[in-house]
């Protein structure tokens, strides 16, 4: 057996997890052991795919992606993950359905689920609403399954909400673990989640929130850096503080960019909108006030412009401890796809392989979440498949 | 073996059916035995899914949904059914094809079918055209298969036409059978298919037509109730009359709502447009006369408003014999998604589980139709799968 | 074993091919042996499907269609082919992605490919850009696979570019081989690829280019006929000339329609735009100059009208040597879907079966291309499946 898989299975046997039948909406709903298990299975399933070993466990069944915002990377990750487990896909296109009206979430959630095993939801545009919607769907499914109207309870996976982006942050954690050679090596390392300048507005807060909400578990010195006014949700700041305290790390918020990056070991410079802008945007979207939205966009872009210096350049990189550069992609790269962006082309190009590698974990992170929710004994299930050793493609 | 499945297989062996290689467009094209077989397989396949027994019979092959009207429930039912049988999906998006031009239906129907096993068609917007289109596709496939251009003849399943909605009515019949404990218990029961007020217009007639065209087979007292002017197709009235006569039941049309619901055992209050409105709408749609369509909509909504009292309320329900409330969903519910609708919120909420349960039969009804069309010996095929007992998901 | 399959496998063992891990973008990138192998596997996979023998070789994995132009036939062929091999589908909808910006082709190509085995690309609207884009994707995948960011290198299949349409021309060659009973019987036969009048403009040149670029390999007298001004790419003319010389055939360009068709054995009358129109169109599309595009369309349609006599009629057919009529479909048929078109209804209807039969090869041509790219020993793989003899649908 592959040494990496073997080692992970041994470690898994030491963990105490309770994930069977559970959804994955927030990393902070999960214990440290459960997060580690998610990463370990991400790695195992990645290794199995690399070694051409089938991970097909469903004979049939469908997965339902609900994308309330455009997506390429997450969509492909979700489809790839579900396909590798044996599931077919059926999109829920809300423009053609009733589910957008809050009143009938319960109905539609059940109508699409008679033969569904997984529902993946991306809902990050409307602040204070995305996670609520995901929970509403989950609760509707509890009703249907409880009343025996559904033969199985589909697992709900967050593909990004207004609050968290767990498939991203689990991928990020997997990359960081791989880079530093183990979670135990993260203690004392400095991680900077920084705002970055972008000539666009309204990007979700949840990448930054997901990062500080998860990476604060490992005794790192986590720094959240942004210009004044670009604050994230208070509730997530509380999570990060609490995690840091428990893990023996620190959590700091700063508005001084250079100070933030000094001696950093991992950096993620990335644009997001401020909470108050997202509130205004949500209300204008609900009111379908397009003039208002245009005005808001203009005002925000002007405000953003004041912070055009928040670009991650070679000069800034030189302040760090030769930091690992991370980005969920696509990035706004100065001179590549915009005049001024989050990162200089020089730095971006030099780190291309690292960012692609970071992205490569996502399909397996999603598979891992589904795996842990579907099998009472997820370790035995992997062992069973390794024993069978069915090739994915018998060349 | 599961007792329900066993009982159904025994009953099936007493039936005389000829469904191999046949399409399913109208329930009244099928004999009583064939309809019963369709319900029995609906139940068997439902039980197999509930008991985690694989129903996968296709190693590969595609199913083609052609939706000429938006759909969530039927689309998910069709995808779920085809996936559970082992088929992949490829939508025909007519906006990107030539098939809309009548001249080339033959061509496109064949071009999409070289490796297709099932074609599901929803075409209910254009009165006197939907069923014709379904038959034109079927005839084009007969040509391609007859000339050996296609290796296999895809089965055409109606996912609703202007005339009938067989996947809905077979689901409804399955629910009614389940509720009363057997088709033999329907004799003498009163079933009311009633028009209901809705603040929209242009809903297809085919739900009502499908219900009276099928449920009139079982010796029930079938009542079709609607305000004057909301008549359905004469040809379907004839089917219902004929069926009632043969089965020893009655078929009545009334415009008196309260009289209709009195002592009813099963009720389905549901809005539809009148035949003459659908004719005008079709002609305006063909002419792309959007002003005309707006004017028609306004006139219809005004006319509908005169019948706002056609709401199924607790008061009306009290007139019935504690009737089973049915609806194909989504319903227009007073105070939930509209000001005045087909049903009061009180009644709707009290019957939520029943309507969801009714809906749960549809994927299995579609599977049953495909099963009966694909296997020369559909009973032996189920027995073979039960013998194998492959788990759908081996937890 | 099926005699046809047996014969093809024997012939395959005599061929010298190097197609493992290779893309399929241009037929003239392949040797004569490789083209023949592609046709032989097209026929074998077709026979296997006809005889209900499973061709499923992938346990899981996705195929990604990228359609930069609308498509029905090619889309269904691609989905059908990939499904029959065991792959799931995930469309890349460029309107929802970043891939359209040249700068990030490398990124998106890798992001969608972590679990992808095949990428099919149709990009025929922009002259001098389609093939370049296909090559850019291929090169991006070389990077990702080379850097071990991808576990497998997805095979890129051209589903039509501005230069070639290999899945079409391989289907055409398969049909011609079938019609004349073998490639060895094509020597000395006269094939006419002719422009045809159409009341539309801007059709890609690549069907004509694909035909002359491939069919010039077999010692035929290949004639390219079109009105002055409707010239195709010089580089492809060179390919056709070179091929003809090597194979002992001839290649002629003429502007005299009747002369062209005289004594022809195979004809393909089909509209296309001139190279210079495609250049103007490309530039106007890039500039989003919609008034300019309207003006160009009007000018082109007027110019086309001068050549309304380029219609393939019974009278013209009578000049030929009872020629096989070919068309990739859909055709512009006089009196069927336009007032004047590429072909008279009489001739089109009389040859319906032949054109449908021609089309039926495409899904298997695509399967063949994937097969040859995925297996080091594609012959042994077929023999393995024939040995297993798993039914596609066990009736």
Distance between the termini of chain A: 20 Å
What is the top-level CATH class of the largest domain in chain A?
A: Alpha Beta
User: Which architecture of the largest domain in chain A per CATH?
Assistant: 3-Layer(aba) Sandwich
- Total helical segments of chain A: 16
Rg of chain A is 21 Å
Task: Give a written overview of the molecule.
The structure is a homotrimer of 395-residue chains. Chain A is an alpha/beta fold and 395 residues long. Chain A contains 16 helices and eleven strands. Chain A has helices at residues 3-12, 32-50, 73-85, 105-111, 130-146, 166-180, 206-215, 234-247, 257-261, 275-286, 290-305, 314-317, 345-350, 352-360, 362-374, 378-388, and strands spanning 62-67, 88-89, 116-123, 155-161, 190-194, 221-225, 250-254, 266-269, 324-325, 333-334, 343-344. A five-stranded parallel beta sheet of chain A has the order 7-6-5-8-9. In chain A, helix 2 (32-50) crosses helix 6 (166-180) and helix 2 (32-50) crosses helix 15 (362-374). The longest helix of chain A has 19 residues, at 32-50. The two termini of chain A are 20 Å apart. The model of chain A has no long low-confidence stretch (mean pLDDT 95). The B-C interface holds B 57-62, 64, 88, 90, 92, 96-99, 101, 103-104, 107-108, 110-112, 114-117, 144, 147, 149-151, 374-376 and C 49-50, 54-56, 70-73, 75-77, 79-81, 83-86, 88-89, 329-330, 336-337, 353, 356-357, 359-360, 362-363, 390-395.
